[in-house]
Write a structure and sequence with these properties.
- The protein is of the alpha+beta class and 147 residues long.
- The chain has one domain: 2-Layer Sandwich (Alpha-D-Glucose-1,6-Bisphosphate, Chain A, domain 4), CATH 3.30.530.20.
- It is 27% helix and 52% strand.
- The protein has a 7-stranded antiparallel beta sheet with strand order 1-7-6-5-4-3-2.
- Strand 6 and strand 7 form a beta hairpin.
- The radius of gyration is 15 Å and the shape is globular.
Length: 147
Amino acid sequence: MRVEGSYDFDVPRQDVWDALRSPEFLSSCIPGAHEVRTNGHDSYDLTVSVQVAGFTGNASANIAVADEVELESYRLTIEGRGAGVGVKGEGALEFTEIDGERTRVDVDGDAKVSGFAARLSQPLLRGAAKMMMNDFFGRLKSKLENT
């Protein structure tokens, strides 16, 4: 399943970069997050409550950062499990400075869903993934621009 999006922030690129690399900041932006912990260099473990298409439950995941080019881009790998559902994914984030004081983050990735959720239709899964991504980046935008 393909996931992609473009998100604009009215703050400098360094602020967006730092927020997306901070476990504390991430935990306040991830919908349903209970905890985000650093697990070694460039790796995070998280626990979340999820509610997608009638499915509700807790999940745990590992997120690893790779191929980092400071203030420009990095690649994420995500592997998560919970209550009969599994997700594996990989995505690229690119950071573009706009007019010196604004930032655009472009996200492009793929995810594979297994278990119960894999039986749902692809458009429903894609819509749920897009909704969760928009929710996350909306929270990030609100926190960054209102601090």
